[in-house]
Structures are given as C-alpha cells and as structure tokens.
Design a protein that fits this description.
Ribosomal Protein S5, domain 2; 12 strands; 9 helices; 23% strand; four-stranded antiparallel sheet; globular; Alpha-Beta Plaits; alpha+beta; eight-stranded mixed sheet; 2 domains; binds (R)-mevalonate; single chain; 315 residues
Length: 315
C-alpha cells in the first residue's frame, strides 16, 4: 500500500485581482487530503469518504463504494487516465470540505499523483506533479483554475502567485475558517467581476491596484507578526471584495460575527465569494471565542494553521 497526502489552502489576499495579473498571496493549511493506492489485479476501484451529491461521472471504469461520493472520484479518474493506470484500488479521504474554495480538488489530484508516482515507480518530481496537477484540475473544471491551488498543494508554505509562482518564507498563522456551506460558482463570480471591470475600468482597476498593494504589504506584516495591522488589511480587502460584488449577506454575517463577539483582529471572505468561506484572525480572546461566535452565526468552523507542508508520502 502507498499513501500520500497534500494540503488544502486559503487565499489570504488578492483574489479576483489575480485574474488580471496582480500577485495574490495564498498559503497551504493543515487540512489534508490522503490518497491510498493498493494493487487490485484485473480491477479498478475508487473509494472515498466524501459524501457530496450532484456531480456527473464519465471517466471511471470501476466500482464506486458510495454512489453519491462522485466528487473525489472524477479527479482521481482523470489522474488515472492521464497516467494510463489500472489494476488498482484507490482510497481517498479528506479533511478539506469540497466546494468551499479551500483547494480540496487540487489536494486530491496532487496526493493521487504522488501516491501513484511512488506506487508505480514513475519518479515524478514536485515540479512535474505541480504542472501535471494544474493541467488535470483545469481539464476537469473545463479550463478553470489558477496554478495557486495545485502549487500550494504540492509545495506547501506560502506562495505569491501571478503569472509565475514565488515561494515565500513566512511564519505560520492560526486562522479560523467559517464555512457558510452555501455553494458558489467560481466561474460565475469571476465573470461577474470581469464584466464589472469591462464596464467601469476606471473604477475597478484602482480597486485591483489597492488589493495588490494589500497583498504585497501583508507579506511584511506576516513576516514581522504585526497581527493587528494584518487584521486591518483583511478588513480593507473584504470591503474591496464587497465593492467588486462578490460578497453575500451570509459571508458578511460571518465576517461581522468574527470581528464583533468573536474578537477577531480581522476577517474577510476567501476565494471567489458568492458563498464558501471566510477567514478570521483571532484576537486576544483567542480561537475558541471566535469559533463559538462563528458557530452561533451559522458557520461550519475549521481551525487552519497556515504555512503547512506540501505533498508528502504518508498521512
Ligand atoms: C478563486 O478561488 C480565486 C479567484 O481569484 C480565481 C483564481 O484565482 O483562479 C477568484
């Protein structure tokens, strides 16, 4: 049996502006997807603990242990097809909620590539895994997907991403993630923002510029652990994303609960918006107070430590 795991991610600053070439700042977090590979001569099985409904399946040539667990399997199927692999039993387990903007699919693809590379003796390097994973994720998502998620799942740590990817050496942060559990459509949110930009370039470009400055300044603030100022930047970035039209009532309710009773130093939506998650930086009252506030506001809550290790063999 061969086991590999890869981390999920959060976008800390710069979502949407990154689509127009402005560098964004993302980090791998300590929620992981694990993929186990065993030989199954003459068969092909994919088993998963992810209970998500509503996805279609077209590539799988084997048995599903749960008919509803199609999310992970379509990504694993694409990896198997890419590598021409068969005669295997693949088990996928993940701590990362799917469809939340936390890089679940990228982590599954990267962990699957690493586990299969080791099991089949393919000797793929990290750079090859990142490139292949990005191509596979994009093809399953019909052309959508920045290199951020697959690069963070592969290399871990913090990355600054624009047309290229730059690794940054920064200390970890203990964040609290509040999930609205409202599904969102990343393509729809990107199109909405880009259409706003096309109609009001003189207004939207400066907003992208301000988001870029925030993403840049945040690097220094994280390095120096100037957390109060970092929280302030999270609040400004959230306001700018609201201005771009990707906020929702539910996301804002979580943001205000985090900053209010939760005592957070700052809070913002993370990812495409329109649903999904917020991230909050605990204040002196600590993570547990923040967690209670977010739960009371209706969120599913995760604690996420940034700067986590990338793909590795083992759990
Ligand atoms: C989506 O998670 C983040 C966006 O900036 C899109 C992207 O970077 O691919 C909206």
């Amino acid at each position: 049996m061969t086991l590999a795991s890869a981390p999920g991610k959060v976008i800390l600053f710069g979502e949407h502006a990154v689509v127009s070439g402005i560098p964004a700042l993302g980090s791998a977090v300590d929620l992981r997807a694990r993929v186990m590979v065993e030989d199954l001569p003459g068969g092909l099985e994919i088993e998963t603990n992810l209970p998500l409904k509503g996805f279609s399946l077209d590539l799988l040539a084997g048995r599903l242990s749960s008919k509803e667990a199609l999310y992970a399997t379509r990504y694993v199927s694409a990896v198997l097809e890419e590598l021409g692999a068969t005669g295997l039993h693949i088990k996928v387990e993940s701590d990362i909620p799917p469809g939340a903007g936390l890089g679940s699919s990228a982590a599954i693809v990267v962990a699957a590539l690493a586990a299969l590379s080791s099991h089949l003796g393919l000797g793929l390097s990290r750079v090859e895994i990142a490139a292949l994973a990005h191509r596979i994720e994009k093809s399953v998502q019909k052309g959508l997907g920045s290199p951020m998620d697959t690069a963070l799942a592969t290399f871990g740590g913090y990355l600054q991403v624009s047309s290229c990817v730059r690794e940054l050496d920064l200390p970890p942060l203990a964040l609290v993630v509040g999930h609205t559990e409202i599904p969102h459509d990343t393509r729809h949110e990107i199109d909405k923002v880009q259409s706003l930009r096309a109609r009001h370039p003189d207004l939207v470009e400066p907003i992208f510029g301000a988001i870029g400055l925030i993403a840049e300044r945040a690097v220094y603030l994280i390095k120096e652990l100037k957390l109060a100022e970092l929280g302030e930047l999270m609040n400004i970035n959230h306001g700018l994303l609201e201005a771009l039209g990707v906020g929702t009532k539910e996301l804002s309710e979580l943001v205000y609960a985090a900053r209010g009773v939760g005592g957070a130093l700052g809070a913002k939506l993370t990812g495409a918006g329109g649903g999904g998650c917020i991230i909050a930086l605990p204040g002196p009252a600590g993570g547990p107070t923040l967690e209670i506030a977010l739960r009371q506001a209706g969120a599913r809550v995760f604690h996420a430590r940034t700067g986590s290790e990338g793909v590795r063999l083992g759990a």
